[in-house]
UniProtKB/TrEMBL annotation:
A cellular-component GO term for this protein: maltose transport complex
InterPro entries (UniProt xref): MetI-like, MetI-like_sf
Protein's UniProt keywords contain Transmembrane: yes
Location within or outside the cell: Cell membrane
Any GO MF annotation of the entry: ABC-type maltose transporter activity
Topological type in the membrane: Multi-pass membrane protein
Protein name in UniProt: Maltose/maltodextrin transport system permease protein
Residue ranges of domain ABC transmembrane type-1 in the record: 199-418
Keywords: Cell membrane, Membrane, Sugar transport, Transmembrane, Transmembrane helix, Transport
SUPFAM superfamilies reported in the protein's UniProt record: MalF N-terminal region-like, MetI-like
CDD domains per the UniProt record, alphabetical: TM_PBP2
Pfam families recorded: BPD_transp_1
Membrane-crossing residue ranges in chain numbering: 39-67, 79-99, 134-161, 203-225, 237-258, 284-310, 335-354, 397-417
Length: 431
């Protein structure tokens, strides 16, 4: 009787369930479904993966949690990187293992439905039709993981360690410190004063400089697009010339022009009015100069962008507005601006995000100076240039990583919110 009960219980187990259970050992579920070649391939791949990566993953996971235990023998940074790579390799192996269960279950369901088992040639053909695109993009995805994802994870991990110039491996080992760096950023006086000063200037710089370059580009595009303007091609060419010159060359030239001693702006222009402004030594005037320079450097792109969009606005809409007695302002507000913003809103948002992290102009113009008493950043440093100084000049890697995370969150939240509000995002996928 006991044997009959065991047989009846065994019969109740569906093939798909049994295939999943057997797939605990990769390949056995496929072999149960009489897909012997596929099962053998799964078994070989899984075994090879374990043999080749087990030691690396084992040491990597251990190093990721401990960051080493013996100073001068263990290197915390190397262990951290190996641990992050181990996580990616382990995730890849888990993905194969999960796919092993899914494939066995899928074959078992097909077997229950008495669907014919595909031949080897049919299987290869099915893989070519369905999986070939994924197979071709796999090398690119793997490169993306190790070139982009690993450095980002490494930076993120450093923000939760005590890695600085006084605590650097291999002389000393790193420790996980949790959110201590973020707390210090808003509680310790020198960090708090510097962070809020730099962060507020970064916001002002981003909003004012970007808005001015967009406004100037829009005004010039509207003027050049006016039917009463002649020589449009020549004017457009001249206005785009600042964009043609490499930005770093223009910035270095402006740095010389704004020099308070020998610069042409003070010596040849402002001196005529008995005015000499401290462009490079006073934080306020340095910020004013930076905003003017960025407006000059940024408006040609916006001008070219708006000029192209204005060419696509249907003329019959303006003609209909004229018939209805619409004013220039009404046509601008209800016809021109909606068309421009619908087509360019994502790019305009990226202008703000780009200026938020515009390292070149800040560093090349005056290296973020002048110095400010009681702060460890210059008077015109934005977050990205401050992070550069913390990393390459004072070796405060942990604080630089913490600030970088905050920067990434600010830009991501702002960009996501603005993209969600744009009409082009809302209309995407409807056509």
């Amino acid at each position: 009787m006991a044997e009959e009960k065991m047989v009846s219980k065994t019969r109740k187990i569906q093939p798909r369930t049994l295939a999943v259970i057997l797939s605990i050992i990769p390949g056995l579920g496929q072999m149960y479904n009489r897909r012997f070649l596929k099962g053998f391939i799964f078994l070989i791949i899984s075994t090879a993966f374990l043999i080749t990566t087990w030691d690396y993953i084992d040491i990597g996971i251990w190093g990721l949690f401990t960051l080493g235990t013996i100073p001068r023998e263990h290197h915390s940074i190397q262990l951290l990187i190996q641990g992050l790579i181990s996580l990616i390799v382990l995730a890849f192996g888990i993905g194969i293992y999960i796919y092993n269960f899914m494939d066995a279950r899928s074959d078992a369901i097909a077997r229950e439905a008495n669907r014919p088992k595909p031949t080897l040639l049919q299987g290869v053909k099915g893989f070519y039709n369905n999986g070939f695109p994924y197979f071709m993009i796999m090398p690119g995805l793997i490169m993306l993981l190790f070139i982009v994802v690993v450095p980002l994870l490494f930076m993120f991990a450093l923000a939760f360690t005590n890695y600085n110039q006084y605590n650097a491996p291999p002389r000393k080992l790193l420790d996980w410190v949790g959110f201590t760096n973020f707390v210090d950023l808003v509680h310790i006086d020198i960090w708090k004063d510097t962070f809020f000063s730099v962060f507020s200037w970064t916001i002002v710089w981003t909003v004012v400089a970007t808005t001015l370059q967009i406004a100037l580009g829009l005004i010039l595009a509207l003027l050049v697009n006016d039917t009463r303007i002649k020589f449009k091609r020549a004017i457009r060419t001249i206005l785009i010339l600042p964009w043609a010159v490499p930005a770093f060359v223009s910035i270095l030239i402006f740095s010389a022009l704004f020099n308070p001693t020998f610069g042409a702006i003070n010596r040849d222009i402002l001196s005529q009015f008995n005015v000499m402004l401290p462009w490079l030594s006073d934080p306020f005037w340095t910020k004013v100069a930076l905003i003017m320079i960025q407006t000059w450097l940024g408006f040609p792109f916006v001008f070219a962008l708006f000029t192209g969009v204005l060419q696509s606005v249907p003329r019959d809409m303006y003609e209909a507005a004229d018939v209805d007695g619409g004013t220039r302002w009404q046509k601008l507000r209800h016809i021109t601006l909606p068309h421009i913003l619908f087509a360019t809103a994502p790019l305009l948002i990226m202008q703000y995000a780009g200026n938020f992290n515009n390292f070149n102009i800040i560093y090349l113009f005056n290296e973020g100076n002048p110095a400010v008493r009681g702060q460890n950043a210059g008077g015109t440093d934005i977050l990205i240039s401050w992070v550069y100084k913390l990393t390459f000049e004072s070796n405060n890697y942990n604080m630089a990583a913490a600030i970088t995370i905050i920067m990434g969150l600010v830009v991501s939240i702002f960009a996501f919110y603005q993209f969600r509000k744009t009409a082009s995002f809302k209309e995407e996928g409807r056509y």
